[in-house]
Structure formats: structure tokens, C-alpha cells
Amino acid sequence: MMKKTSHPLISIIIPVYNVEKYLNRCMESVINQSLKNIEIILVDDGSPDNCPQLCDEWAAKDSRIKVVHKNNEGLGLARNTGMQYATGEYLAFIDSDDYVDLRMYEILYEKATALNADIVYCGHKYGLKDGTFEDRNDFSQETIFDDKAKIEEHSMNYFYPINSRQMMMSVWHSIYKRDIIKTPFYSEREVVSEDLHFQLSAILNSKKIVYIPDSLYYYCYNGESLSHTFKFNKFYGFQKLMRVILNLYPKKERYVYKYYFNLILGFIRHIMGDEKLTNKERKEYIKEIYLNETWQEIKQGTDKRMYVKHHKLMYALFGRNMFYLFHLILLFDYYFVYRRKQISKTKKNI
Questions:
Q1: Measured on CA atoms in the order 266, 272, 274, 280, is the torsion positive or negative?
Q2: Rounded Cα distance, 230 and 212, in Å
Q3: Using CA atoms, how far apart are residues 56 and 153, in angstroms rounded to an integer?
Q4: How many angstroms separate the CA atoms of 202 and 171, rounded?
Q5: CA-to-CA distance for 127 and 140, rounded, in angstroms?
Q6: Among the four given CATH numbers 3.50.7.10, 1.20.120.350, 3.30.420.10, 3.90.550.10, the one describing domain 10-219
Q7: Segments making up each domain of the chain, as ranges
């Protein structure tokens, strides 16, 4: 039975920026939730389109909606602004170009109260280019973690799958007890994957977390997304991400360093495959990564047993004056390992 309370059960925080084509769809799914005692916080992050007016129009229709207008600072800081205005028992986040199942928050809240959970996660429907959706979830059946040591071990799967299970780091398929949120979001302009640090911090502050398989969040394909646009300063964002994760797991540095290596290798592969870059630009970007002084620092905490043979050699060469040899190994990795895997995946999907 749903308990009676004067304050909202869930505060749903929705950052809004340049999404006038999608905002109404998102809002229809939120205001019509079967769980009525909710608070909806629209954070207009200095949107240049018609979104500020749309936000105000929605607030005029529904007293549960609060609107905050602010200068543009990005998604992470917009969420932080929303949390400052939140009064709910639990917090939730939605990206404004997505939408949710009409029973999502009732299902999550009922599960949270029934099990006294600090966080409850659900699955999601992943939008494909053809307009269809694919069900995705972290676990195929209800799964509970309520032991501190096991929660910490499990949390590492969000950045390094020690149990052969890579967890989804996004914060929009879950609700969080407000009391466990001790640290805000980093700006995505400073730290890559701003959701990850927030997610890990929340989990480590929890006594019980629950996963249900129901796919209740609709993650929509948006062909206008800039998430795949190449920006070299993302490399420094990866470095800052490594630092903040190390602060959470000071005794697990070998796993953090392996995660960082995987990120950088993926970033280098992205550079190599970017047809908008010239060969000279590719080589210059890769060389700047190769010579970065961070490699000398983290090599001391690296467990070489965690790397395949040619990656061990690449790692050993990072930061040394042997770039041409490194580049040859990188070409082998890209064309004979990575590209072959991509082609094989494509053939399986045909």
C-alpha cells in the first residue's frame, strides 16, 4: 500500500536544452504517471529554442511542475540545479528527448518501499535507427545486493566487469533515495561520463540496491546527437574521470588503470577511424596521447596480467621515445583485431 505523505514521493529532474521537438512527448509520459504524488523539475539550461516558453506553459498546466531557468552550463550542472530544488523522498532523472512507461515510477517506488531499497534500477528500451526498440537490462530477474562488501565489489562492474558483466552507467533508469546522494554531478565539460562518478558514489553510499528486469525507460535514437563528434580535449576528460574513480577506489587502482587504458584505446581507435581527420592530424593526436606524462605515473600500479600480448607491448611503449614502433602495433590492433571484430559483428546482424 502506498504511504500517505505531504511531500512528493519522487522528484523527477529533467534538464532541458534544444529539445523542442521532443519535450512534449517526454512531458506527456511524466505528467500521466500512475504514481501521482511526484514533483517534476524542469531545468531550462539556457536553451536557445522555444523550450523556455514550453517549460513555462507546462508549469501553468500542472502544479506539480517547477521550472528553473538558468545560463547554459551543461547536463551535469543542470541536474545539480534540479537537485537543489528537489523535496522528494527519492530522486529520478530523465533526458528530455526520451520518455518513460506510464507506470515506471509507481513500479520503482513500490519496489523501493517494499524492500527498503536505497536505489532501484529497471531495464530500458533502446531506440534503433529504424524506429524500433530493443529491450536491454542489467539482470534478467530481480536481483538484490544488501551486503556492503558485495555492493562495493558489484559497483566495480560499472567501469571494469570483474564478474564478466558490464553494467549500464546512465542514471535515467533508476530512482535514488535522496539521503544517499552525497556528491553532485561533475560537468561533462570537465569529466567524461559524468553519470559514472555519480552512480558509483550513490551505490557505495547504499545499504541495499535492487535491479528489476522490466524495460520501463525509452531511450530514443536521435540522429542529431553530437555525442559522437570528435573533440580531442575529451582525452583530458578521461584523465579526470580516472582521478575521480581512483578517489572512490584507492585500493583498486589496477582495475581503474585497466579501465582507463580501455577508454584511451577506444578513443585512439575513434581517431583512426574518423574520416574527417587527415593522416597528419590523426598521427599528431595519437602522438600527444602517447607522450602524455600520465603513463609513467600509472605504469607502477598496472597489473600486466590483465592485458593481451600486443596491448602489453603498447602499454610498455607509452611515454617512451619509440613512437614509430608504437604506431605500427596500433595499426595492427586497429586493422587486424578491432576492424575484423567489427566486420564479424556486422555479418552476424545481417
A1: positive
A2: 35
A3: 44
A4: 10
A5: 19
A6: 3.90.550.10
A7: 10-219, 234-349
Q: Give the distance, in angstroms, between the CA of residue 109 and the centroid of all CA atoms in the same chain.
A: 22
Predicted pLDDT at 226: 45
Residue 134's alpha-carbon distances to 35, 124, 128, in angstroms, are: 25, 8, 7
Q: Are β-strands 99-100 and 209-219 bridged in parallel, bridged antiparallel, or unpaired? A: antiparallel
The full length of the chain comes to 350
Where the chain has pLDDT below 50, the residues are 1, 226
The DSSP secondary-structure symbol of 17 reads S
The CA-atom distances, in angstroms, between 84 and each of 36, 87, 131, 137, 196 are 22, 9, 36, 30, 20
Q: What is the pLDDT of residues 21-76, one digit of tens each?
A: 999 999 999 999 999 999 999 999 999 999 999 999 999 999 999 999 999 999 99
HSE (side-chain half, CA atoms, 13 Å) at 268: 25
Q: Locate cell 530514443: which residue? A: 220
If residue 149 lies in a helix (H) or strand (E), which one and from where to where? helix 148-155
N-to-C CA span, the chain: 48
pLDDT of residue 312: 87
